[in-house]
Amino acid sequence: MKASARLVVGLDSHGNSVVRVLRSQSPLTLVPARRVGPVALVHLVSSVTSPLGGDSLELTVEVGPGASLDLRGVAATLMLPGPTGLPSSSVLRFSVEGSVRYVPEPTVVTSRAHHVAVVEAELDGHAELLLREVLVLGRVGESAGTLSTSVRATRCGKPLLHQQLVVGTPSIDSSAAGLAGKRVVGTSLMLDAVPRASDGGEWWNVVPLAAGGTLATALGDDVVTVTRVLDAI
Q1: pTM for the model
Q2: Are 191 and 124 contacting, i.e. CB atoms less than 8 angstroms apart?
């Protein structure tokens, strides 16, 4: 299955953030909330089971000057194998001149799944982006499939972050150089003007980025623990 969707948010004459363009294609279904205010709320709903092996999904999000978008998921995403054995893929592109908060529900990498995920974000000089990702390695009692995620962020064309994470190799996931045997890994990328010092604990850390912004990472045995740590940061 191949699918693409596009979301454009801008300001109206009263200064409210409104959806200007909303184009969905199953399974990428965008559902805007019926409210008026400074922040537009849109839910991203998977209208059929996806991603399956062989699926190719693409979502483009554009937010204009002064506008704000809160993009949320409504349920956990299950990455599943397909009948052909082919990998699945997803591309999420942000073009931000205002502010975006993207907080999807956790993603579960099920056994035998093979997925490649790419997130690309281009920000202007004053744009802000909060991007959270929580990955769960397999369902209960199940080994994880393989997942490669890549996040590339730039501001006015200058690099902010280029990070890749690969999970699903047991020997690496269980090592101190990998996930130290933890089943859940969460990251929060905060591209804003808020100064944050380097910090960390036993299973989490906060790293200021050289070109501005902050990356927080947390490991844990369950989603609740990791989410609470990221919320506190």
Answers
A1: 0.95
A2: no
